[in-house]
Amino acid sequence: MIARAGTAGVTTIVVPAVERANFGAVASVCREFPQCRPAYGIHPMFVGRAREEDLEALRETLKREPAVAIGEIGLDFFVPERDDESQSWWYAEQLKLARDFDLPVLLHVRRAVDAILKELRRIAVPGGIAHAFNGSRQQADEFIKLGFKLGFGGAMTHPRATKLRELAATLPLESIVLETDAPDIPPEWLGKVRNEPGELPRIAAVLAELRGITTTEVFAATANNAYEVLPRLVKV
After folding, report:
1. Which residue in 101, 133, 102 sits closest to 116, CA to CA?
2. Distance between CA atoms of residues 28 and 22, nearest Å
């Protein structure tokens, strides 16, 4: 998969953790493959099986491992049988860690944009990425004001995603980063097949078409945006 990504021109892959149980796997992959850069966090869809001591394990991992961000963290108010209070607690506590370690955050935001923004105003962190952004233009502007970039990927490639495509076409280019969320959120041409980082150039081509610019311009701008919001990508 990494070789295919490299052939496609993707030279750096951010690998986020989702729970304490895979911190070690993320660290191991990133040590074995220098193209991979780690982020550590507890995903809102995994907080149901998390324990408070996992927060200390996260803190110790951040002390020991060279992370580019804390993530994937956030809120998911879409999934059934969820515990909103627990999600909110884990989200806030991990924002505090990001503040303490001076790390950006990779945010999972589903049906929870306003709640995510409310905590970001309360607990200041050094920016980050609102992954798979699908909010309003007003909400996008609020993220940008807080030093965040907005992630666009496979969902943008579907012609029926008119609202999302309008945002991709009209938001300031300096506020956009490209992503795959592999193996999830496959682009339109994959159907339900497993997504991979190597699809990123074709996703970039869609963004270029929506904005009426060249793919080369999209490559340069979004790569620069990624390095700006995740400065340790070039330092790890």
Report:
1. 133
2. 10
Residue-number span of the structural domain to which 77 is assigned: 2-234
Inter-CA distances, 123 with 44, 103, 139, 153, 231, Å: 18, 13, 18, 27, 20
Domain total of the chain: 1
pTM: 0.96
What pLDDT, in 10s, does the model give residues 179-209?
999 999 999 999 999 999 999 999 999 999 9
CATH number, domain with residue 96: 3.20.20.140
- Cβ atoms of 75 and 106 closer than 8 Å: no
Helix runs in the chain, H state only: 2-7, 23-32, 52-64, 84-101, 113-122, 137-145, 162-170, 200-211, 215-229
